[in-house]
Structure formats: structure tokens, C-alpha cells
Automatic annotation (TrEMBL):
Residues 374-575 form the Mitochondria-eating protein C-terminal domain. The keyword Transmembrane does not apply. This is Mitochondria-eating protein. Residues 177-191, 359-374 have a biased composition (Basic and acidic residues). Keywords: Coiled coil, Cytoplasm, Lipid-binding, Membrane, Mitochondrion, Mitochondrion outer membrane. GO terms for biological process: mitochondrial protein catabolic process; mitophagy by internal vacuole formation. Residues 314-330 have a biased composition (Pro residues). Its main location: cytoplasm. Residues 139-160, 177-208, 278-375 are annotated as: Disordered. Belongs to the MIEAP family. It comes from Elysia marginata.
Length: 578
């Protein structure tokens, strides 16, 4: 029976007696046979048993048969005890050495069975030691059975076993070195220091817990990265919103700059044409001197009264004064701060001299670049007002009010400031006119009812007043204009609590400064919000409106700006149209 395929044969041998031959016999010498004897023999004789099925815990009685002599040997837990039955005195020592070698080989097999699942290197070393012992047993000459073993053969046998033990020690040291090297490699691979004693064997829970801990650590790191990326996304969204707002402002400023550039090119062309005309002598460059009227009880002539209306006939052209008389200065028409020219002496032919009409010093065809307060600079300030202060005030009120209400409120502030600025200028002219005609009235200022009955100022005096006001345009008290604008804006707008908001207050002050500069121009600049139908040449649509179906204007967001009443359009108005 082959017990290598039937594990029950080993346990069956414990209950019966039968001489069982151990398989495979390659570990035995050609002249030896290893058999096992039990108390009973329920199985056939010569049953083959594989050595791997035997354990050191079995208590077996082994009989070594060698040349007709039987030697009983008991083995337990890898320790071999030899008991000779009917020993031959002549061959005792040689047989003892061979029996010890065979028993040692069998004990190596038992050790291999215990170690093979734990360490493949130990398996290799044990197999190598067993093969060496078997080879030495095969090469060792068997002594004759009738004569005792020679002394030199006994010494040789003992020396061979000594070499085997030395070889076994070397193999053990190699095994230990390989174990240490393997443990060191595992530590380097794992990245954490471990000693060979604390090295985790396969099948234990420690590697699994370490992997779980490592995965948790990686998971925490990934969560931190995700949170960081989410915060970065939020920051990018905020930056994107701010960039969009800045892009809107830049777009508005670009449109205004393009319009201003276009207007500047047109003005430049007109100036070049005027210069060419002046060079050819078709248009006089210098203004004619005039004699201002002296105060008298009679009314002064109106500016529209021509000089040729004199009853004495057509006037004689004014000649330059002689060297004996005082020089008469002649200033260009564009001079902003020049004093009135010295009037010429009365001619003997005419008998008297009447004032000739004086052209306006701030004609729209030629701007006085010496003045800071001129229409082109005001247009730039008007554009900046929309792109900066108006945008800031709108953004500060968007969270508290509806968009339409905010837009109407801010536009109302601008138009109210413009109205108040014109009222202030008219009041100044009325006061000056009243003081000139009635100097004693300067002590007690006139009322509004009296102002409507006063005669208007002459064009010359109005031009002089305008020059002085433009020279001191930045000294106006804008806070008073804002207060008057709030009172004049209507009951609903005046009661709005947002007038005191910091950004709205700043916007209102800037509106007052810009509209005052518009009002003191001669003629005054004009803002308009009276159109009812959409016109692409004069209006631009709010971004939320439908550009294809825009017809009627719902309300103005930003007024139209003209050079003067009925003059050129400087900047389109922004409207909400449906």
C-alpha cells in the first residue's frame, strides 16, 4: 500500500502490526532496508509509507536490517535512540555510524516538514544537508560483518560526521545571513525600520492594519487637497466676477474714448480749415475795437443792433491810432483773460462812435486751450463720471434696491444737479445786472419776484462774467449744489434715504462739479432725457435689452450730452428700451 496517496494508512499502522517498507528507498544504502513493526498486522506486509507522512510525534519501533542482523531503534521528536539486538562485535562501530547518519537524515526530514511552510530557504538547506549525508553513506565502504571494524575506519567515520556537523553549521550561518538580508530588503521596500525579530510573517493581521492606516493617511491628504482646490475655485470665481465688472467699465470707457477721439479729429479738421482760411485772408483774425457804452438814463444798445444803423450814414472803418495818441491793443478772439480793448477816439467826420458787435470769445469752432474748463475737458470728465463714480454708486445700491429704481435714482441726481447749476448761473447774472443798474441794491439782495423783472445782461458783460467763472470753476461749493439738487429732485427722490450713502454722496458731489462746468460755458452745454423713441445715432441700449426689437424708451439710464442746445452730440445717452 502506497501511503503517499492515502493519509489514512499512517493512522492505520498505529492500530495493527505489519512490516511496512518506507518509500522511497533512495535515502537508504543498497544493502539496507528499513521496516517498521507493529503489534498487529491487519494490512498486507511490505506496505509502502512515504516519509512525509511520518511525524516525530509517532512512537514507532524501527528495525534496521543489515546483512541478516536486526537493530531496534526508537524515534520520538527527532531524537534517535539506537538499541542493538543480537549485535555483532566485529561490526558494531561501523553500523553505529551509519545508523546515526541515517537517523540524522530522517530527523532532517522531520525538521523539513515543520519548516517548509514558513521559510523556503530552510527547505533548501535541509534538502541539501540530507543529500550530502546520503552521498557520504553511499560512498562510505561497508566493513565486513565477520571481522571487527579497523580503528582507522572508525576514525574515518567519526571524521566524516564531524565534517557533516561543520557543514551543517556553515549552512545554518548561510541561512541566518539570508534571513537577515531578506528582512533588510523588506524593510527598505516598506520604508519603515523593522528588525528581523519583529518582521511580520504572512498570514498575520499587522500588514493589513498597516495598509489600512496608509490608505487612511492618503485619504486625508486627498481630502485636504480637495478642500484647497475648492477654495481656489471660489477665489477664481470672485476674481472672474471682478474682472467682468472691470471689463464692463473698460468697455464703457472705450466707447467714450472712441467718441471723443472722433470728435477731436473733427475739431482738428475744422481748426485746420479755419487756419487755412485765416492765412488766405478770407476771414479776419483780429477783432475790431469798440467803445463801451457809458452809463446813462437811456437804455444801452442791444448786442444785435448793427453799427450801420446810425443816422449819420455808414460808419467809417476804424483806422489805427497815430503815434501821437495812446496805442490801442488788439487781442485775438481766443484770449480768455484779456482786458477790454481801448476804444478809439471819436472821428471828426462822424462826430460820435457807437459800439460795434463783439464776437463771442468762446466760439464752438475754436476752443481756447488756455482754459482748463472747456467743452472737450468737460466731455472727458463726464465720461469718467459714468465709468467710475456712477458705477460705484450703482454697485453699492444693487443689493438693497431693484435695478430699475437704482438707475432712475442716479440719473435723477445728475439731471437735478444740472438744473440747479443753471439756476445758480442765472441768479448770478440777475444779481450782477441788478447791481450794475442799481448799485445801492447791493446792500439788500433782491427777491425772486424782482429778478424776473430785471433786464438781461449784455452779451459782452455775460462773456466777461463767464470767463471769470470758468477761471475759478474749481472754487464752487459743490455741497451747496448737492443740497439744492436734493430739494429740487422731487418729493420721492428727495426723501430717498440713500442720499447719505458714502458712494452716492461722492457721486452727487462729482455730478455737481461736472454740471457746474457745463453751465458756465457760453453757450451752456446741454444734457437731455426727453426722447421717447429709440434712435441708434443718439442712444445706446442697456445690456439687458433686446437690441433687435428696441423701439420705445422706457427710461433714461444716462443722459445725452450736446455741445450746446441744438449743437453736436458729444456722447450718446444710455436708455432702457422695449
Amino acid at each position: 500500500m502506497d501511503t503517499s496517496q492515502d493519509p489514512g494508512a499512517v493512522s492505520a499502522l498505529l492500530t495493527g502490526k505489519a512490516p511496512v517498507q518506507v518509500w522511497p528507498p533512495a535515502s537508504l544504502t543498497p544493502t539496507s532496508c528499513l521496516t517498521a513493526t507493529a503489534a498487529a498486522r491487519p494490512y498486507p506486509a511490505n506496505t509502502r509509507i512515504h516519509p512525509s507522512r511520518l511525524r516525530s510525534s509517532l512512537w514507532c519501533l524501527l528495525t534496521v536490517t543489515d546483512c541478516g542482523e536486526q537493530v531496534p531503534v526508537s524515534a520520538m521528536s527527532g531524537e534517535i535512540k539506537r538499541e542493538a539486538r543480537h549485535p555483532s562485535p566485529a561490526s558494531m562501530s561501523g553500523k553505529d555510524v551509519r545508523a546515526e547518519a541515517r537517523n540524522f537524515s530522517a530527523s532532517l526530514t522531520n525538521v523539513f516538514l515543520m519548516k517548509q511552510r514558513r521559510d523556503p530557504q530552510t527547505k533548501h538547506l535541509l534538502e541539501k544537508a540530507q543529500s550530502l549525508i546520503d552521498a557520504l553513506l553511499a560512498e562510505s565502504p561497508r566493513p565486513p560483518s565477520a571481522t571487527p571494524s579497523p580503528r582507522h575506519q572508525q576514525k574515518g567515520g567519526a571524521g566524516g560526521m564531524g565534517q557533516l556537523w561543520v557543514k551543517l553549521d556553515e549552512l545554518k550561518r548561510e541561512n541566518d545571513d539570508l534571513k537577515r538580508q531578506r528582512a533588510r530588503t523588506a524593510e527598505e521596500h516598506a520604508g519603515s525600520p523593522k528588525s528581523p525579530k519583529s518582521h511580520t510573517q504572512p498570514g498575520q493581521i499587522e500588514p493589513v492594519s498597516q495598509d489600512v492606516q496608509k490608505i487612511k493617511t492618503e485619504n486625508d491628504l486627498l481630502k485636504a487637497q480637495v478642500d484647497k482646490l475648492q477654495n481656489t475655485i471660489k477665489e477664481h470665481q470672485k476674481i472672474n466676477l471682478s474682472l467682468q465688472d472691470e471689463a464692463k467699465r473698460s468697455k464703457v470707457a472705450l466707447e467714450a474714448a472712441q467718441k471723443l477721439a472722433k470728435k477731436s479729429r473733427e475739431d482738428c479738421k475744422r481748426l485746420e480749415a479755419a487756419l487755412t482760411t485765416a492765412k488766405t485772408g478770407k476771414e479776419p483774425v483780429k477783432q475790431k475795437p469798440f467803445k463801451p457804452s457809458t452809463p446813462s438814463s437811456t437804455a444801452p444798445p442791444t448786442p444785435s443792433q448793427p453799427a450801420s444803423s446810425s443816422s449819420n450814414g455808414p460808419p467809417i472803418p476804424t483806422k489805427p491810432p497815430s503815434s501821437n495818441g495812446p496805442p490801442t491793443p488788439s487781442k485775438p478772439a481766443s484770449s480768455a483773460h484779456s482786458a477790454p480793448p481801448t476804444p478809439p477816439k471819436p472821428s471828426a467826420l462822424t462826430g460820435s462812435s457807437k459800439p460795434s458787435p463783439r464776437p463771442r470769445t468762446d466760439n464752438r469752432h475754436t476752443e481756447n486751450i488756455g482754459e482748463k474748463c472747456r467743452p472737450s475737458n468737460i466731455a472727458v470728465a463726464f465720461t469718467t463720471l459714468e465709468s467710475q463714480e456712477w458705477m460705484d454708486a450703482k454697485e453699492s445700491l444693487e443689493d438693497e434696491e431693484e435695478e430699475e429704481d437704482v438707475l432712475k435714482f442716479l440719473c435723477g441726481i445728475l439731471m437735478s444737479s444740472y438744473t440747479v447749476s443753471n439756476v445758480i448761473l442765472k441768479s448770478v447774472e440777475n444779481v450782477i445786472s441788478h447791481v450794475i443798474t442799481n448799485p445801492t441794491a447791493a446792500v439788500n439782495m433782491i427777491s425772486d419776484e424782482e429778478a424776473g423783472q430785471l433786464p438781461p445782461l449784455t452779451a459782452e458783460l455775460s462773456d466777461i462774467i463767464g470767463q471769470k467763472l470758468r477761471a475759478n470753476y474749481d472754487k464752487i461749493n459743490t455741497k451747496d449744489i448737492v443740497d439744492l439738487a436734493q430739494k429740487n429732485s422731487g418729493s420721492a427722490c428727495a426723501a430717498n434715504p440713500h442720499w447719505s450713502h458714502p458712494t452716492v454722496r461722492k457721486y452727487a458731489l462729482e455730478c455737481s462739479a461736472v454740471t457746474w462746468q457745463m453751465a458756465i460755458q457760453k453757450p451752456p452745454m446741454r444734457m437731455s432725457t426727453v426722447d421717447s423713441s429709440f434712435n441708434s445715432e443718439r442712444h445706446r441700449l442697456w445690456w439687458s435689452c433686446n437690441h433687435l426689437n428696441a423701439k420705445g424708451i422706457d427710461f433714461f439710464i444716462w443722459p445725452c450730452l450736446f455741445d450746446y442746445e441744438g449743437g453736436n452730440l458729444l456722447m450718446k445717452g444710455c436708455v432702457h428700451a422695449s
